[in-house]
Write a structure and sequence with these properties.
four-stranded antiparallel sheet, about 30% strand, Rossmann fold, 12 strands
């Protein structure tokens, strides 16, 4: 059982403090959801964990099984078992989906344990079928010319192929219609198990209707202000952030969508 722990994390961008002491702990076998209004630091948290150079960590730690990943390079974090699915995936010309995924898989393996071509193709065909993706997408350049929905499915395909220890899914539901949302959720649910944990960042309850979280965290003003079970997301949907603020006695200005 692996553990990911965020301790007193403070993060700034261009000298503006965004995260103001985030504390969160999860383990494999669990799905955690982070919800919160715009501008509260949800995406900043994911970027800081993965080492985006624009975000400066001024205090705190991110521990993966006791090792501070903030001291690792970005590629080392990925090889250690962290994965980030972003809201707007980059397009990379000249590298096919299949080439990218096989290289990513083998980067986490020892030299004498690389995945062979046939094993890779068999696994790829299986995962693409789960996500209802046509075979030709494997030979297209990475995200080049993909629709928004195709990019999101492709992120989940990478997740299923690479099989990280912890996946951070940053607003994977953004812009998806209901059919695409169901397919993407099927992929995430297929990963659930003792060797996998996920931190899902979302604005809306609708994603959590398909991926039931074990734990829900509410972020406001750069901090986790409340943690509970799946019912907390439903409470938030019914009462809104202002209702929660009144319950907690908070006076925070909420950024409009």
């Amino acid at each position: 059982m692996a553990v990911l722990e965020i301790k007193n994390l403070h993060v700034s961008i261009e000298d503006k403090e965004i995260l103001k002491g985030v504390d969160l702990k999860m383990q494999t076998g669990e799905i955690h959801a982070i919800m919160g209004p715009n501008g509260t630091g949800k995406s900043t948290l994911s970027a800081a964990i993965m080492g985006h150079p624009s975000y400066e960590v001024t205090e705190g730690e991110v521990l993966l099984d006791g090792e501070n990943v903030l001291e690792m390079e970005v590629d080392e974090r990925a090889r250690a078992g962290l994965f980030l699915a972003v809201q707007y995936p980059s397009e990379i010309a000249g590298i096919t989906n299949a080439e990218f995924m096989r290289a990513a898989i083998n980067s986490r393996r020892e030299e004498d344990d690389k995945m062979g071509v046939m094993d890779f193709i068999t696994k790829l065909d299986e995962k693409m079928a789960v996500l209802d993706m046509p075979e030709e997408m494997a030979e297209r350049y990475l995200n080049e010319g993909f629709s928004g929905g195709e990019k999101k499915r492709n992120e989940i395909l990478q997740l299923m192929m690479i099989e990280p220890t912890f996946a951070i899914l940053d607003e994977i539901d953004s812009g998806l219609d209901i059919d695409a949302l169901q397919v993407v959720s099927t992929g995430v649910n297929a990963m659930r198990g003792e060797g996998f944990g996920s931190l899902i960042i979302t604005h809306y309850q609708r994603l959590l209707n398909y991926i039931t979280p074990d734990v829900v965290h509410i972020m406001m003003d750069g901090r986790v202000v409340k943690t509970g079970g799946a019912e907390l997301a439903k409470q938030l949907e019914a009462e809104g952030y202002k209702g929660l603020m009144e319950e907690l006695g908070l006076d925070i200005e909420i950024e409009e969508d």
